Amino acid sequence: MSGRLRIVIGLVTLAGTVPGLARAQESQFGITGLGTPGRTESVRARSTGGAFAQFDSLSFLTEASLTTIGSLTATASLNTSNRDLEYPTFNTWLRTTRFPSFTLAGPVAGIFLGGGFSNYLDRTYSVVTRDSMILRGTMQPYYDQITSDGGVSDVHLGAGFRLGRALSIGFGVHLLPGSTKESATRTFDDTTTFSPVHQIAQVRYEGYGLSVSALLNLGRALSISVYGRDDSHLNQYVGDTLTNSTNLPNTVGAGIMWRPSSKVRFAGSATMTTWGDAISTASNTLNWSAGAEIGRTSPVRFGVRGGQLPFGPNGTTPTEWAVSLGTARQFARGHGAFDLGIERLERTGVGLTEQVWSVFFGLSVRP
């Protein structure tokens, strides 16, 4: 590991007690770990609390759901968030805008193919810490500022197959590329005697994963989904030098959907991710969601979700819960659709609470 990267990682470790923060960054609960885990969900699924993600062909959470798509479809999304952070001694706010996902999927020669990208880990933040040290026999106070801009993406390709009218299966391959520009600056109060120290590292990431899923239709009203995913290692490079290799977790999940009529759908799901088994400083997470969609051309969607985050100060496990609401509007005689959603999220950990309002926009086009 290079000296510059050691400084960056060492300062990130100090971020458990952050007295100052920049305005454009992601969740603070990802700073002490690998980052903030992304969500593989379309705007439709996000508006139902994520409950519909396992049955939604455009979320790409399960490849078996690709068999429910009727024609070639492309979809993209835009998320914007405003978050309030509450510390024991002060409050602050942050703002984030992301283009978190793109998916292209459709039937090809009797099978169903899909591909695209989504966020896997976000590592965008800026943190300022206050400390002091003895230099030349005198205590010298200083500020450390550490910044990271970038993250890791999930570039995925999958296929779904129908095994009769009731059962579908799917398989997926996931590439995990990414990069971050990381910097560390130490500024002494006595700028006359001590010059600032500044270090920069361009970190590149590589990894991969495999996934499998199944979708079982029990008549016209009930569907059950199960899936599993195995991610390998996340390799970190500075230049062409491998500086670190971190185990990545396994994920298993299941969901159920009930359709009492053609205009009413309910769903619920649960997912477990073994972050704690992969990384000693992280925690295994269990997350759940429940939601509904009422209507067809201009549906009303709502949902609730809750669970845990893998990274917290001193190995603790932060929790989160959220409620969401959304709708959609078709245009061009059904060849396009505009999705809109809003979510209220709260995350709670030791010494920190995040309260987030997020707005989601999605555009889908069918040639």
Provide an overview of this structure.
The chain has 367 residues and is mainly β. It has helices at 3-13, 43-47, 275-278; strands at residues 20-21, 36-37, 73-86, 91-98, 101-108, 111-122, 125-135, 138-163, 167-175, 178-188, 197-206, 208-218, 222-231, 233-238, 241-247, 250-261, 264-273, 285-294, 300-308, 319-331, 336-349, 352-365. It has a single domain, classed as Outer membrane protein transport protein (OMPP1/FadL/TodX) (Porin, Beta Barrel). Helices cover 5% and strands 62% of the residues. A 14-stranded antiparallel beta barrel has the order 3-5-6-8-9-12-13-16-17-18-19-20-21-22. β14 (233-238) and β15 form a beta hairpin. The chain is elongated, with a radius of gyration of 22 Å. The N and C termini lie far apart (50 Å). Residues 1-24 have low confidence and may be disordered.
Determine the structural class based on helices, strands and strand pairing.
Answer: mainly beta
CATH topology: Porin
Order of helices and strands: HEEHEEEEEEEEEEEEEEEHEEEEE
Low-confidence stretches: 1-24
- Any idea what the radius of gyration is? 22 Å
Number of domains: 1
CATH class: Mainly Beta
CATH architecture: Beta Barrel
Query: How much helicity do the residues have?
Result: under 10%
Going by CATH, what is the homologous superfamily?
Answer: Outer membrane protein transport protein (OMPP1/FadL/TodX)
Number of strands: 22
User: Main sheet?
Assistant: 14 strands, antiparallel, barrel
The termini sit apart by 50 Å
Strand composition percent: over 45%
What's the total helix number? 3
The outline comes out as elongated
**Strand order, largest beta sheet:** 3-5-6-8-9-12-13-16-17-18-19-20-21-22
Q: What number is the mean pLDDT?
A: 87
